Amino acid sequence: MAIHNLAFDPELTADLAELHDDSEEDLVGADWHQTAIRVVNEGLLLVGPERGLPWHVGNQLTTLMGQIGDKNWRPCPDISVHPAAGMDAVLSFDTRVHGAPTVVIEVASESTYRYDLEAKRRSYARVGVQEYLVFDPTHDWLGTAVRAWHATAHGFEAWLPTRDGAWHSRELGISFQVDGMLLRVVDADGVMMPHITEFGRLLREQQQEAEAYTRRLRVQTEEADRRAEEQARRIAELEAELRRNRQGDQE
């Protein structure tokens, strides 16, 4: 999507001075930064592709956004979602083929938050992103957990949370909910998607329950065997007593 007439758009001119392809410094963050990205990614995969929806969920995937002014922009959004581009793995996402990602999420850090909030936000709006959310796990850089925008006829406008404190995506039919230092994905039925740590805990709990059930079953089986043996012994005693009585009657 090429944009011209730079001389008549001072904001665009200023943004182009900052606009750049994401570097390693932009992408590599603290543990909580990477964990936040991973949890959103896992939640989106569970609620989308794992349910058979043709979503393409990108995780810091190089995205060929096209030309803005005199620059071909190739950012790597922390999270991007295109709901119709399919699940096939790609080396990079080409918006000339599929169009711009519908939803983009960036996780703020000290080195990126100003860029995320200003030049990058306006540039995502220019290329056709419909919903844009910036999440700050520590609240240090945004002064809050989330700042978000969605496309309107008048450009990007504030995307506000619903009464339950979640950001409902009209494009995906799901919601994003702050949970401590994490941003969680909530499906259309209000169910929060688990992440890998929770899966591990659930697996351990299931294993413990299975082991406890096996122990109970073994105890029950041993008790049943003991009762069967006791019953067989008692029957044998009764049969022996009956034979003795019959012999006594015959005598």
What does this molecule look like?
With 251 residues, the protein is of the alpha+beta class. It has seven helices and 13 strands. The protein has helices at 10-18, 24-27, 31-47, 95-98, 113-117, 119-127, 196-250; strands spanning 56-59, 63-64, 66-68, 71-73, 79-82, 93-94, 103-107, 131-135, 146-152, 155-158, 166-168, 175-179, 182-186. A six-stranded mixed beta sheet has the order 1-5-7-8-9-10, sandwiched between helices. A three-stranded antiparallel beta sheet has the order 11-12-13. It has a two-stranded parallel sheet with strand order 2-6. The mean pLDDT is 89.
What can be said about this structure in brief?
By secondary structure, the chain is of the alpha+beta class. The chain folds into 2 domains: 6-194, tt1808, chain A, CATH 3.90.1570; 197-251. It is 41% helix and 21% strand.
Task: Give me the oligomer status.
Answer: single chain
Tally the beta strands.
13
Distance between the termini: 115 Å
User: What's the architecture of the largest domain, going by CATH?
Assistant: Alpha-Beta Complex
Name of the top-level CATH class of the largest domain: Alpha Beta
> Strand arrangement, largest sheet?
1-5-7-8-9-10
Find the structural class using helix and strand composition: alpha+beta
Instruction: Please summarize the sheet with the most strands.
Output: 6 strands, mixed
Helix content: 40-55%
- Unreliable sequence segments: none
What overall form do the CA principal axes indicate? rod-shaped
Number of helices: 7
Mean pLDDT: 89
By CATH, the topology of the largest domain is: tt1808, chain A
